[in-house]
Structures are given as structure tokens and as C-alpha cells.
Design brief:
67 residues, mainly alpha, 0% strand
Length: 67
């Protein structure tokens, strides 16, 4: 049998960040989808679409700058 040394209960417990960062009783949990999350993803998709449109509109002007 191997000796592992003294066991300290406050060190052996695993601390999870989700327990620290997540509030215990969240009011957002009542909503199926959080409004902030929806707005975030809408802004991300708008940024992607605008970036693609600007790329196809101005790509020919960028080619001389890269060469």
C-alpha cells in the first residue's frame, strides 16, 4: 500500500469555475433564450454579412495593395 501523505480536506475539494461564476438563482433561467445572447449572435451575423459584402465589393481594389 502506498502512502500518500496527509490529506487536507480544503485542498482535496475541487473548485469549479462554473460554480463561482454562475449565479445560484438566475432570473435569466426563466427565459428560454436570453435576450443578450440573441442580440450578440445577431450582431455577429450582421458583421459577417457586412464583411462578405464589403469584400466582394472592394476586393479588386485590394489586389494592387497586396502586390
Amino acid at each position: 500500500m502506498q502512502e500518500e501523505g496527509p490529506s487536507f480536506p480544503f485542498i482535496d475539494r475541487r473548485v469549479r469555475i462554473s460554480r463561482i461564476l454562475r449565479p445560484v438563482d438566475s432570473q435569466i433561467a426563466d427565459e428560454p433564450i436570453a435576450l443578450r445572447r440573441v442580440l450578440f449572435w445577431v450582431l455577429v451575423w450582421i458583421g459577417i454579412i457586412v464583411g462578405i459584402v464589403l469584400y466582394f465589393r472592394y476586393a479588386r481594389l485590394l489586389t494592387p495593395l497586396l502586390g
